[in-house]
Amino acid sequence: MDTPLVADGLRIRPYVAEDLAEFISAVRESMATVGVWMAWCREPYST
Predict the structure, then answer these.
(1) This prediction's pTM
(2) Count of CA atoms in the C-beta half-sphere (13 A) of 12
């Protein structure tokens, strides 16, 4: 998928290296809830 998909204010595009800091922040913020369902979303989280 080279072209982002855009609809109703939502944009889906391929992951890029510049997303890393925001992704890590989102993972850490969501550990208490997402970590219940996703084994990768638990401490100690690293990339």
Answers:
(1) 0.65
(2) 4
